[in-house]
Specification:
The protein has about 270 residues and is α+β, with helices and mostly antiparallel strands. The chain has nine helices and nine strands. It has a seven-stranded mixed β-sheet, with helices on both faces. Strands 7-8 form a two-stranded antiparallel ribbon. The protein is globular. It binds nickel (II) ion. Nickel (II) ion binds next to β1 and β5.
């Protein structure tokens, strides 16, 4: 499948599930902006059936290649980013994975059970990245237990495979020149920003500045009833040129580490 078609489908699912994300997008288009994606991010577990390399397959088939590799020691995550070889307008793809082996036997058992329940046609096909939660209605008790060990694991247990966030490329905006202007615009519209480590992650000297909304709150059906929990978020990225005058294209692990917290549990 062409990458444009993959992203169209991911975007439809993302905005259907996350009305706030659509609202962010509409806020920029209402200002006359054409929103370009810097990157789109996915989450998974390091289980050989569903790891980063498995999720990357449809992108590799669509002309992407691996570029960066990142380690997030504190969160027990690793990640890879991918770029399209010829289409420079195609967004980067960022896929992270949690290392279940660094956690309790209870967490490992939940992850194994999740992967066990995914139908084989999804594991060996190209539809896994859109397939959401394939392991059934989650238990709120399990969600709470996972959260104590890893907010990332708890989020993934509920939502499964989907775009965790899209990212507005600030470099492609006309009216907004700084990330501070973007953040102020979002706050004026009533969006909450992830302020873990400050509203802006990274500096011009690091060649990448990032910010993100806090994930919107969704009513989700659990075995025990309906609970309000965070869903997906929107990110904003401003890239700076390196000494060769080329815009930096990678990611900064220290910044991404804080961006992951955009889906941490909170009450509105
Ligand atoms: Ni991101």
């Amino acid at each position: 499948m062409e990458s444009d078609k993959i992203f169209d489908k991911l975007w439809t699912d993302y905005t259907d599930q996350n009305p706030e994300a659509k609202h962010v997008y509409d806020s920029f288009t209402a200002e006359g902006e054409v929103v370009e994606n810097d990157h789109i991010a996915f989450r998974t577990f390091n289980d050989p059936r569903i790891n980063v390399d498995v999720l990357a397959r449809p992108f590799l088939a669509a002309g992407y290649v691996q570029k960066g590799y990142y380690i997030f020691e504190d969160k027990h995550l690793t990640a890879k980013h991918f770029e399209h070889v010829t289409n420079k307008k195609a967004p980067r793809v960022f896929i992270s994975q949690l290392m279940p082996e660094h956690f309790s036997s209870e967490l490992q058992a939940v992850v194994k059970q999740m992967a066990d329940r995914i139908p084989e046609n999804l594991l060996f096909g190209d539809e896994l990245i859109y397939s959401g939660n394939q392991w059934g209605t989650p238990s709120f008790k399990v969600y709470e237990a996972l959260r104590k060990e890893s907010e990332y694991a708890a989020w993934l247990h509920v939502y499964g495979f989907c775009a965790n966030h899209f990212t507005v490329s600030i470099n492609h905006l006309k009216k907004f020149k700084t990330i501070q202007q973007v953040n102020q615009f979002l706050k004026d519209k009533g969006f909450l920003l992830n302020d873990s480590g400050g509203e802006v992650k990274g500096t011009p000297a690091e060649l990448l500045e990032q910010s993100s909304t806090r994930a919107g709150i969704l009513s989700v059906k659990f075995e025990e009833g309906t609970y309000e929990i965070p869903s997906c978020y929107y990110e904003f990225a401003l890239r700076w040129p390196d000494t060769n005058g080329e815009l930096y294209s990678g990611f900064i692990a220290k910044s991404a580490d804080k961006i992951f917290e955009s889906t941490d549990f909170y009450k509105k």
